[in-house]
Write a structure and sequence with these properties.
Layout (H helix, E strand, L loop, with lengths): L8 H10 L3 H14 L4 H13 L3 H13 L8 H10 L7 E3 L7 E7 L5 E7 L4 E7 L4 E4 L6 E6 L5 E6 L6 E6 L4 E4 L7 E6 L5 E6 L6 E6 L5 E3 L7 E6 L5 E9 L1 E8 L6 E4 L5 E7 L2 E6 L6 E6 L4 E4 L7 E6 L5 E8 L2 E8 L6 H17 L1
Antiparallel strand pairs: 1-24, 2-3, 3-4, 4-5, 6-7, 7-8, 8-9, 10-11, 11-12, 12-13, 14-15, 15-16, 16-17, 18-19, 19-20, 20-21, 22-23, 23-24
Helix pairs in contact: 1-2, 1-3, 2-3, 3-4, 4-6
């Protein structure tokens, strides 16, 4: 008899969790708990299973059990993200980027290396593009004249592509950090916006109305040859290259609400990547993580979905608008614009450092205490 083929109840529960069979996982975990009442892996499994079944109280109780056992699993970033969402707190601390005398900061794009940000910001009514440090120190203004928006820092770190109407209509411009020269990339009578630079720094995908509807195009930075990637009567927007440059993620209203799609960089093999009844837009796929903004919980907030296990975490949770998510090359830094009063403020979230477990535990105890009183 081959005893090695026998699987423990804990192993069975892990397989069920990976397959999304959460009720079955709980049955296996109950048997495992009876045999191994002090095994933190069992209670971690309970937390994940009940969290996916939206059972808040059970999730929180088993989280406290992890803490009672002194297990480091209570510090798991994914688990704390689940619990933070239940308790309506943000799973990662966010900090404003204090650009002095710059009233509105509309959008920021991180450079590789965690040192600089390309920011579209305005002192009064006219926006310019600035190179800024994370502490808010302005290094340089790189735009000249007109309204300037939509900066995208190339992953190669040597270029910033942005939109400007300095010549009368919205066109794409490329600023070279080495030569400090700016080149006009598109030149037509139409509106070109929302650029995203390919990982190798050779091409840009963007949105234009040059053919009558808002479609997605790709342009080569050297030859300036343009290729149309989408063709339909609906709005397509917010294109962004994936980390390997092989695919482009984008938003489209072709099915009623704004959903998230992906296609190859040549415009073929279009498919739905994420859809809900809400508006889901402005996507960025970094590795296995999809970042986007959505109205799924009522107001515009920023979300992250891990594509492998479909784990969805709400990254922002507040009463104001959160827009323009932009993610660093390594997926560890998130920039967003937050509408506070009548101004836009740029915020930074360090995705490598989640909310302290002590804060989570305090919120869990408060919730359960209130729940018992009710």
């Amino acid at each position: 008899m081959n005893r090695c083929s026998h699987k423990s109840d804990l192993q069975k529960s892990l397989e069920a969790l990976n397959q999304g069979e959460y009720a079955q996982a709980i049955k296996s975990l109950n048997r495992a708990a009876a045999k191994e009442p002090a095994n933190p892996q069992v209670y971690y499994g309970f937390c994940i299973a009940y969290a996916n079944l939206d059972s808040i109280t059970q999730t929180l109780r088993y989280y406290l059990k992890l803490n009672d056992l002194g297990s480091n699993l209570k510090d798991d970033i994914s688990l704390k993200g689940f619990i933070a969402n239940f308790l309506k707190i943000e799973p990662y601390p966010s900090s404003p980027i204090p650009m002095k005398k710059i009233r509105n900061q509309f959008k920021g794009s991180p450079a590789p290396g965690h040192e600089l940000i390309a920011v579209a910001a305005a002192k009064l009514d006219v926006a310019d593009i600035y190179l800024v440090k994370y502490d808010g120190e302005i290094i340089k203004k790189i735009s000249k004249g007109g309204m300037n928006t939509d900066p995208d820092f190339a992953m190669t770190g040597d270029k910033v592509v942005y939109v400007s109407n300095r010549d009368g209509d919205d066109e794409l411009y490329v600023y070279d950090l080495k030569t400090e020269q700016t080149v006009k990339l598109t030149d037509n009578k139409f509106q070109d916006n929302s650029p995203s630079v390919s990982p190798d720094g050779k091409e840009v995908v963007y949105v234009s109305d040059m053919d009558g509807t808002w479609e997605i195009y790709r342009i080569n930075l050297i030859s300036k040859k343009i290729a149309r990637l989408t063709s339909n009567k609906y709005w397509d927007g917010f294109p962004s290259f994936t980390s390997d440059g092989a695919w482009v993620v984008f938003s489209s209203s072709r099915n009623g609400s704004d959903d998230i799609y992906t296609m190859r960089a040549d415009g073929t093999e279009t498919r739905v990547l994420y859809a809900s009844k809400a508006d889901d837009t402005d996507p960025h796929l970094v590795g296995d993580n999809l970042f986007f903004r959505s109205t799924r919980d009522g107001e515009w907030e920023i979300y992250r979905m891990t594509m492998k296990n479909k784990l969805l975490v709400r990254l922002t949770n507040n009463s104001v608008l959160d827009w323009n998510p932009r993610v660093s090359k390594d997926g560890l830094r998130l920039l967003l614009s937050r509408k506070i009063g009548n101004r836009w403020q740029l915020y930074f979230i360090n995705l490598a450092s989640s909310i302290p477990s002590e804060v989570v535990l305090q919120a869990v105890n408060t919730y359960l205490m209130t729940d018992r009183k009710n």
